[in-house]
Amino acid sequence: METTTDTIRSDLCKALCANVDVRKRPDGRIYVSTPFRFPDGDSFSMYLERLPSGGYRISDLGGTMMHLSYEQDVDRLREGTRGKVFSQILSEMGIEDDDGELALDVPANHLGEGVFQFGQALTRVHDLTFLNRVQVESTFYDDLFERLTAIVGADRVVRDYVAPGIPQAEEYPADFAIPTPAKPLLIFGVPSQAKARLATIVMQHLQRQSFAFRGMVVYADMALIPRADVSRLTAVADEQVPSLDEAEALIRKVRSAVYAT
Prior knowledge:
The chain folds into two domains: 2-130; 133-260, 3-Layer(aba) Sandwich (Restriction Endonuclease). Helices cover 44% and strands 19% of the residues. The chain is built from eight helices and eleven strands.
């Protein structure tokens, strides 16, 4: 058994070493090439810098955030549910975030462990872009809430609004409401086909009960919702915003609706 484990250890060390390389840069930092890759094949950015203490700082020099920015707004990683998970990852892995540059300080005798720890941390950060559907919907609603409070103030936005005086009202809540002297603006976030259908049902129920309101639909991405579902929502909603990324449209329509109600 000892011979077998020694052989396995030797084979693994050879395989791992064959996939790790180091190159000194003109600025004195050392670039570390590892098997860690983004899904598109690009290598993780890892650079070593000697610390006065004798240890090393492992840094991505901002490369991870830059890579993620090609496909999304990286500032959103620091907001809402994403932001909490992002902060938790950095805390658990001992990573510093210096304005987008991620770094880890390690003693010289733990450099190997530090490189793998850093690679694991960057992998987890990148995995934030692949949250499951429930988590994605959660971050969408967090983001929408933050946008609405930025427009009218946190004290004016009501979450999970239940219309007063309506039969079985608790079964037909709106995601958000902004009360006004005349009639409330009810806002429905729509990140999926299922939610598009639910929002339609809720607004239809309130309209049948003669509840006075203005209805607004904010899509995560309108293009991803089947045309028939969008058509039904169009028939019952007063306003629609095709995407949460269309910030100016959201601001304009919310302000217009609030002052018009």
